[in-house]
Amino acid sequence: MAMDRGLPGPVDAEGFRNALYMIDIGQNDINALLSYLPYDQVVAKFPPILAEIKDAIQTLYGNGSRNFWIHGTGALGCLPQKLSIPRKNDSDLDANGCLRTYNRAAVAFNAALGSLCDQLNAQMKDATIVYTDLFPLKYDLVANHTKYGFDKPLMTCCGYGGPPYNYNITISCQSKNATVCDDGSKFVSWDGVHLTEAANAIVAQGILSSEYSIPKIKFDQFCKV
């Protein structure tokens, strides 16, 4: 009987080795945990999330990958989804209207992820592992929103309920009752969780600048001419 060898891969071994693997995961896990667990219990659940990321990098490395770009999470305490959750008072809000506890969790996760990348860099001498901390970059979209031309840093473009957050967990952006803003370039948040195209463009510029990365390697250094 003839054996089915399957379809050829999209790249050969050299292509697999030279490719850049960008890993941007973890935010959904932390965001979900924060919805029903206190801060200490959320932080206690970081190790298995980080272990999955470590395993993914090591598996790719074991198969020949040598170039990795790892992204930390953003300012979860500034998401309209989180800000719209009923609270007893505003004592947890910072000067920019974001929830301190959620942002503390994001910063703690990023610190642990950065340490993991340091550890892997020490172990994988022939690999390049760039870690980019997205928290300061995404928090700046809110803290200095006027610099970027944003009018509504904590309000969704697509949502329901109007000011201050225009977010309703039961009437999402996909709902027929949702409304969409006239100019998305004035908003940081698209639907309460994801950024608008305008905000994402600024984040992309920040990532490519290497200003938020360790080591500060430019993206084009990975490109083969």
Automatic annotation (TrEMBL):
Gene3D superfamilies hit by this protein: SGNH hydrolase
Keywords for the protein's UniProt record, in alphabetical order: Glycoprotein
Q: Does the keyword Glycoprotein apply?
A: yes
Domain of life of the organism encoding this protein = Eukaryota
Q: Does Iron appear among the keywords?
A: no
- InterPro entries associated with the record: GDSL, SGNH_hydro_sf
| Molecular function terms, GO-annotated | hydrolase activity, acting on ester bonds
User: What family does the database annotate?
Assistant: Belongs to the 'GDSL' lipolytic enzyme family.
The name of this protein is SGNH hydrolase-type esterase domain-containing protein
Q: Which organism is it from?
A: Oryza meyeriana var. granulata
Recite the lineage of the species. Eukaryota, Viridiplantae, Streptophyta, Embryophyta, Tracheophyta
